[in-house]
Write a structure and sequence with these properties.
Distance between the termini: 14 Å
Strand content: 35-45%
Number of domains: 2
Number of helices: 4
Helix content: 10-25%
Structural class: alpha+beta
Largest sheet: 10 strands, antiparallel
Order of helices and strands: HEEHHEEEEHEEEE
Number of strands: 10
Length: about 180
């Protein structure tokens, strides 16, 4: 497939033209809970985001951006080490269950999916395929038992309390590029 044809490729998701862009992001402090889940139970870690918001509220702190899931380790389909995180202004220390971390600065490939979370699997597959076609080097280390990602995010751009219809939810995928990776053309 030519690059011109790829640029206009439509992914089978609601209201999405598959058009990855590269974003440069600075370091971002955040607080999170971490757990090991499977592809079938990943919603269990996402369901812990209210716990993180409650922890922030108890300390008089607020989120500075949208909540996210950070995939640290992936061994599909059975083992995913995932954090449910909330960006904060900084200077926060963690507690018993909630830890304070920093998302690394760097260049990230971004694409947004609009629709039900189940549709993310196809968009992720398409993004990884696109990366392969463009010889992209992700910030990931391959191991015998899976992949250790430097920074791979699903950012929830829609608040379900404000938009209860999951067909209208926006989820941004942000996959960090390796430090020495040239920009995809």
């Amino acid at each position: 497939m030519s690059l011109d044809a790829l640029a206009g490729l439509h992914v089978m998701t609601r209201r999405v033209v598959f058009d990855p862009i590269v974003k440069v992001r600075g370091e971002q402090p955040y607080v999170a809970v971490r757990d090991v889940v499977s592809l079938e139970t990943v919603n269990e870690i996402a369901d812990r985001l209210p716990e993180v918001f409650e922890w922030l509220g108890e300390r008089g702190l607020e989120a500075v951006d949208a909540p996210f899931l950070r995939y640290r380790f992936i061994e599909m389909p059975g083992r995913l080490e995932v954090e449910a995180g909330v960006p904060v202004a900084g200077g926060v220390t963690g507690g018993d269950e909630v830890m304070a971390e920093i998302l690394p600065a760097g260049r990230y490939v971004s694409v947004t999916h609009f629709g039900r979370p189940e549709g993310l699997v196809g968009v992720i597959a398409e993004l990884l395929r696109w990366g392969g076609e463009h010889r992209v080097s992700w910030d990931v280390v391959e191991a015998d038992d899976g992949q250790q990602w430097g920074c791979r995010l699903e950012v929830f751009r829609t608040n379900p309390a404000e938009q209860p219809n999951p067909d209208e939810w926006g989820t941004e995928l942000l996959f960090r590029l390796a430090d020495d990776e040239p920009l995809p053309s």
